[in-house]
Amino acid sequence: MAGKDGKDAKSSSSNKGNKKEVKKETGLGLSYKKDDNFGEWYSEVVVNGEMIEYYDISGCYILRPWAMSIWEVMQVFFDAEIKKMKIKNSYFPLFVSPTVLQKEKDHIEGFAPEVAWVTKSGESDLEVPIAIRPTSETVMYPYFSKWIRGHRDLPLKLNQWCNVVRWEFSNPTPFIRSREFLWQEGHTAFATKPEADAEVLDILELYRRIYEEFLAVPVIKGKKSEHEKFAGGLYTTTVEAFIPNTGRGIQGATSHCLGQNFAKMFEINFENEKGEKAMVWQNSWAYTTRTIGVMIMVHGDDRGLVLPPKVASVQVIVVPVPYKTVAMEKLFAACAAAVESLNEAGIRAESDLRDNYSPGWKYSQWEMKGVPLRLEIGPKDLEKEQVRAVRRDNSEKVDIKMDKLVTEVKEMLDNIQQNLFDTAKTKRDACIQVVKTWDQFIEALNQKKMILAPWCDEKEVEKDVKARTKGEMGAAKTLCSPFEQPDMPEGTICFASGKPATKWTYWGRSY
């Protein structure tokens, strides 16, 4: 998917400006279709849907209120849940000294190409360059070793909401692959491994809920391979999503058990209950604004965004449909009354009373922005004391009596949320192909499938698959080994090596 640099951004915004007057008359529309040119469709949707604006530094984007409101809904949910787990919020600095950053070799090797460095202050060169955090293990853990002394200091459970910078990559894509992004990162330390293991899965379940219950995106919970796990960690668990249009998997969020590797490097020791010196067991876990991009890719259509009601900042838009025989005041009053009753019931509703746009143009704009439900009020609706409701997900229209407005709108929003998830899951499931042989694997890969195959779980075999499938579309790799493993008959062999298989694993191309 092509990214946009500063030059493209300027031409994009100037083109938008040129089209503005025309769009008033013709209605809003996208130039690209999702099935025909997914990359250009996505770039257009995120801008026209007012999610982002391109910035003059490549790979950096302005998150507009329409996008930030979605992030805030997820933040409110997740923050409340981790506080129930006695995890406390903190904030650590953006900058990292090179000596600390380079202390954990395996870890920093995984991030080295992406680390941005501050080398000047004004016109003066800094004596020692300062790194901008790509993640915060090396920022936080020197202080964990200071704060943890005895078993009573454990567990130490911290989270921070912040930004990180990862510089080196090609083809930046809004939300999916950007140089700066927002995330939460949790960092915890325990006296025992079982405590750490339990938290890893508790957090992963919260990530599943964010995707499935809020964003209406189906995900698979599983474990990353040794080759794909977090650098320097013991093991990585993940929620994996899939984009049927591109045939690519996408890592939704990860929860890592770091084991004792960082404890060893940063000397995070404690005196246990027996008076013996011991090392802590650590976890780290994060989800990012990538979640929003996954939602857009899964649900968006040729008319623009399609937002799940749970995360939409405007769940219902009320539009008056004027006619010369009816005074506008009456229509506006009816719209205001509908919005007020919905707001009082906790539904996020607004009215669009702009008089310089036709109702049809407004319909197109709010469809482009993905508002789940549109209510239209015209002269006949006033007479019949009703509103016309139009669903964004399937374009169904239904008339609702004013006295049943709140009840029926609530029910409709619930149905839209469920329908988005069910539709996405049906499409995702249709893309899953079970294979047993290399030839079947290659055929499924060429058909943009998410492939479930028996595997011997050997790193060299995984590397070989990657090398043998390398091409213009990108190489195939392991996505995850699902926790819910299908039965494996005795004697099943690995699809790639012919050795005895030990697990079922999802494979495919990925973002």
From TrEMBL:
CDD domains: ProRS_anticodon_zinc (cd00862), ProRS_core_arch_euk (cd00778). The keyword Lipid biosynthesis does not apply. Coiled coil: none annotated. PROSITE patterns: AA_TRNA_LIGASE_II. Residues 1-22 are annotated as: Disordered. Its EC number is 6.1.1.15. Residues 1-10 have a biased composition (Basic and acidic residues). GO terms for cellular component: aminoacyl-tRNA synthetase multienzyme complex; cytoplasm. One of its GO terms (molecular function) is proline-tRNA ligase activity. InterPro entries: aa-tRNA-synt_IIb (IPR002314), aa-tRNA-synth_II (IPR006195), aa-tRNA-synth_II/BPL/LPL (IPR045864), Anticodon-bd (IPR004154), Anticodon-bd_dom_sf (IPR036621), Pro-tRNA-ligase_IIa (IPR002316), Pro-tRNA-ligase_IIa_arc-type (IPR004499), Pro-tRNA_ligase_II_C (IPR016061). NCBIfam families: proS_fam_I (TIGR00408). HAMAP family: Pro_tRNA_synth_type3. This is proline--tRNA ligase. It comes from Lithospermum erythrorhizon.
